[in-house]
Design brief:
The chain contains eight helices and eight strands. The chain has helices at about 15-25, 45-55, 75-80, 95-105, 150-165, 180-185, 195-200, 205-220; strands at about 1-5, 30-35, 60-65, 85-90, 110-115, 130-135, 170-175, 190-195. By secondary structure, the chain is α/β, with parallel strands linked by helices. The longest helix is centred in the last third of the chain and has 17 residues, at about 205-220. The chain has a single domain, classed as Aldolase class I (TIM Barrel), CATH 3.20.20.70. α2 runs parallel beside α3 and α6 runs parallel beside α8. Bound molecules: D-xylitol-5-phosphate and zinc ion (ZN). D-xylitol-5-phosphate binds near residues 143, 173, 176 and 195. D-xylitol-5-phosphate binds near residues 31 and 197.
């Protein structure tokens, strides 16, 4: 079970300190939400932030590209030090070349899916990805409420992973707190992106420890098969 605090919820004026705080607090990954103001109605930060943070931490940098033209961003983020690059299945026929390009760059290959998108859309790609990022809010902003209707999509993805004997991680992102993380773990998620519920806490170490305990316990009670 991996916990990935989202930098989107951190203090934008203290990214380096917040990154080190997350590492000291026991985070497994650092999740970076990249928004282009076109694929989503918000703009966050770019490759330069990854370049500056890279020497500050040993944490894997889990870059989530909520961007309409990730093809022009993959190399800059890879060069800046990203470890994982995730693109959205909503990009349609662009997806397969993007996944191959990420693989060619030597990074973990991630595919994200928005709440309204049917989970069947990821089927053609499951064998080619390392991470399936199931969005549990509509992308664009932190602090939104969890969308419970996304849970069956996690269950379906976990079933396909089991049936096809795949190794990809199932990551969830958006409105993830102790109880929604446990619900997603019961459904088959194993990697948890959380911003508000983690960076919003004074004691980040305790928050991460509690979330890890909650998802580990919940996964232990998962229905088998
Ligand atoms: C949505 C973002 C958020 C962020 C975490 O585009 O991807 O989901 O990572 O947000 P909260 O604050 O809901 O954990
Ligand atoms: Zn994200």
């Amino acid at each position: 079970m991996l916990i990935a605090p989202s930098l989107l919820a951190a203090n934008f004026g203290r990214f380096a300190a917040e990154t080190q705080r997350a590492e000291r607090a026991g985070a497994d990954w650092l999740h970076l939400d990249i928004m282009d103001g076109h694929f989503v109605p918000n703009i966050s930060f770019g490759p330069e932030v990854v370049r500056v943070l890279r020497p500050q931490t040993r944490l894997p940098l889990d870059v989530h590209l909520m961007c309409s033209r990730p093809e022009i961003l993959l190399e800059p983020f890879a060069k800046a030090g990203a470890d994982h690059l995730t693109v959205h299945v909503e990009l349609g026929e662009k997806v397969m070349p993007l996944l191959w390009k990420i693989r060619a760059l030597g990074k973990l290959v991630g595919l994200a899916i928005n709440p309204p998108t049917a989970i069947a859309n990821v089927l053609p790609y499951l064998e080619r990805i390392d991470l399936l990022l199931v969005m549990t809010v509509n992308p664009g902003f932190g602090g939104q409420p969890f969308i419970a209707e996304t849970v069956p999509k996690i269950q379906q993805a976990a079933a396909w992973r089991h049936q096809k004997k795949l190794k990809c991680r199932i990551e969830v992102d958006g409105g993830i707190n102790l109880s929604t993380a446990a619900e997603c773990a019961r459904a088959g998620a194993d990697t948890f992106v959380s911003g508000t519920s983690l960076f919003g806490r004074h004691n980040l170490r305790a928050a991460i420890r509690q979330m890890r305990a909650a998802v580990t316990a919940a996964a232990g009670n998962r229905p088998k098969g």
